[in-house]
Design a protein that fits this description.
about 280 residues; alpha+beta; Gyrase A, domain 2; Elongation Factor Tu (Ef-tu), domain 3; 2 domains; nine-stranded mixed β-sheet; 7 helices; 15 strands; about 30% strand
Amino acid sequence: MPAVFLNDRSLLSVGGADAQSFLQNLITTDIVSLAPGEARPGALLTPQGKILFDFMVWQDGDCYTIETDAGQRDGLLKRLTMYRLRAAVTLAPLDDSGVTVCWGEDGETGGARDSRFTKAGVLLSRRAGRHGDDSPSLYHALRIRHGVVTSGSDFALQDAFPHDVLMDLNDGLSFKKGCYVGQEVVSRMQHRGTARRRVVTVSAATALPQAGTEITAAGKPVGTLGSVEGGSGLAIVRIDRAGAAMAENTPLMAGETPVFLALPQWSGLAFPTSTDEASA
């Protein structure tokens, strides 16, 4: 069973009598339906519906644990504190440094199972602290294979909508609960079906160029390469433009490297093929 320690992750604790309602009315995740032992992705959005902070959240006894990028933790804590007002909520950073992810037969042992990987048929758990020493490249290769993105590596904060990173499909975005910051915008995108930017897996016969390389079709931009491990990677692309290019057998290129794009199988998404949509 691989066990990978991620030293770039940090934790916050949210407790108190109003912890559930506080998070339910603020973040994208449906906290009320969060099952014991389950970790779900989530985000705190800008009023314009873009991702201000992204994280994983799970229940830990009477509290909730939020796992986020170490560079985001202090900013997220400050923003949550700003929204707390008079709610009976305690907010505190946890002393545990980093997070260990385990997957395989014992993926649920001693941690919270990650719903993003569950969707892809992989049993993966997240646990505070260091409990393994396998190479982080194993985890990043697994992420890439199943279309699981992370901010910084795959998208910039305040630049992506939740739909862009598949939160509408991986239990990170609720359309059934009440209002939260940015909810009106993402609900409109959902009901109108206007999400065109999506996560894709990228493959090439040779090593892919570095993250940030533009993906093009006939010289026109389609998206941007994110995480890369050898000849495999992730990108967020305009699937209407990519679909039109593939329908016309137009080569897709990451810099000078020919690439093949695929939507994560678990997502149930397909590339549109209408050239009219591609020009929208």
